[in-house]
Write a structure and sequence with these properties.
Layout: H1 4-14, E1 25-27, E2 30-32, H2 34-41, H3 44-55, H4 70-76, H5 80-88, H6 105-112, H7 115-126, H8 140-152
Antiparallel strand pairs: 1-2
Helix pairs in contact: 2-3, 2-4, 4-5, 4-6, 6-7, 6-8
């Protein structure tokens, strides 16, 4: 578990205001709350600290620019331990939630080629998402096949 001093230093380094665990700031052209940023960075200890120190509601908070949740962020970067923890503490309802682009956690994990995350999502209830197209018309199955073909070519 992350201690208070380490957590506060991490928040300050990321650009979040002292003591404000729930606001959004622009990081890499997207609005992010601390929970989403910690999830994307794979900082499980920080996620737990935020949860225990007032940001528990942010487990399911969609950011204001893309509509992505912390689960989307963790899936994008293949942080399986963070994905599992988010799921256990309240993000189970987000397992098939699409963001503003129509992309689900399964879509994102397939797009990035994160097989362990895809397998886990499949096992916990996102199996139907493998054939669900996002706004651009592509399905996670298509993306996985295309990525596999590119890596072999």
């Amino acid at each position: 578990m992350t201690d208070d001093a380490t957590a506060r230093a991490w928040l300050a380094e990321a650009g979040f205001a002292e003591g404000d665990l729930r606001s959004e700031i622009t990081i890499k052209e997207r609005m992010r709350c601390p929970m989403a940023w910690a999830s994307q960075k794979g900082e499980l200890g920080m996620c737990k600290w935020l949860h225990d120190n007032g940001a528990a509601d942010d487990i399911r908070k969609a950011n204001s620019t893309a509509g992505s949740t912390p689960l989307h962020s963790a899936c994008q970067e293949s942080h399986l331990s963070v994905c599992k923890w988010l799921y256990e503490v309240g993000a189970a309802a987000d397992i098939t939630k699409a963001n503003n682009d129509g992309t689900t956690p399964m879509y994102i994990a397939c797009q990035e080629g994160h097989l362990s995350v895809c397998k886990w999502l499949f096992e916990v209830g996102a199996a139907a998402d493998i054939t669900k197209a996002a706004n651009g018309g592509f399905t996670p199955m298509y993306l996985s096949c295309a990525k596999s073909e590119r890596s072999r070519g």
